Sequence to fold (280 residues):
Amino acid sequence: MDDNSPESVIGGKSFTAVAINCAAKAGEWIKSKSGSFSQLNLKYSQHDLVTEVDKGCERLIRNLIGTHFPHHSFLGEEGVEPGPEASAKALEEASDAEYLWIVDPIDGTTNYVHGFPFYSVSIALARRGQVIVGVIYDPSRDELFVAERGKGAYVHGRKMQVSGETALSQSLIATGFPADHLEALPQNLQGVQELAPKVRNLRVAGSAALHLAYVAAGRLSGFWEIGLNAWDIAAGSLLVEESGGRITDTRGEPYHLGVRNVAASNGQIHGEFVGALKTH
Ligand code: IPD
Ligand code: CA
Ligand code: CA
Fold:
């Protein structure tokens, strides 16, 4: 993407600058509210939490983006009814958009609620279905991960590079335990059973977006999860690609915004990784 093209600069602000500004402002606000939220509600299941901070944060991001790019479309987790069917429908409805912002205001709400400092703000911009900007912000560590298609990925100005492991046996792999305990969780647990004996170790820290950012930064060799949504993955997908890694679905098919079962890695272990997940 050419940052100086008229498409990417409106009113003097590039897409990436707006995404960074939104993530930083939202993250600061979330952190300031940590431990003092007042409404805790359940969404899809008793494992799917939402607070007024998730909703307020999404409003803040939506308003900021709308100010700069009023003709762009917006897909945010809190604007969609809970559950996989509603998510798929919302994505389908937005699929014609030339520019679509895809936002998870707090990825890792369970951690946020418990004061476990591993949650993030995830903001992606897709052009005709292809992610061109991805920003993930971790307010607890003040770490900002930024990627632009074709321009690399950076954490606090340092170019990121995926890790160098060449085999699962040397790999540190993360996953998540999805809120859908009927279909997604049992499938994910099969993956855990398959992979745990094969890898150096597994981690389940509770923010899919931040796990993807960690794959990009070379802190994890890979990440997979069953039953995620576009807003959990979109920004992280570009971070991984622009850091030299690979992202596909868990069968090894190319990533697109509709992928819910995702596998991301440093690329070198991808065949072995996806091969092990495919066993089930
Ligand atoms: C959740 C987190 C978690 C993952 C869940 C997601 P949320 O997102 O990414 O790590 O295991 O599947 O739903 O609900 O905190 O935005
Ligand atoms: Ca999420
Ligand atoms: Ca969320």
Q: What stands out?
A: Residues 9-159 form a domain with the Fructose-1,6-Bisphosphatase; Chain A, domain 1 fold (CATH 3.30.540.10). The longest helix spans residues 15-33. The chain has a mean pLDDT of 92. Residues 104, 107-109, 176-179, 206-208, 225, 228, 232 surround D-MYO-inositol-1-phosphate (ligand 1) (CB under 6 Å).
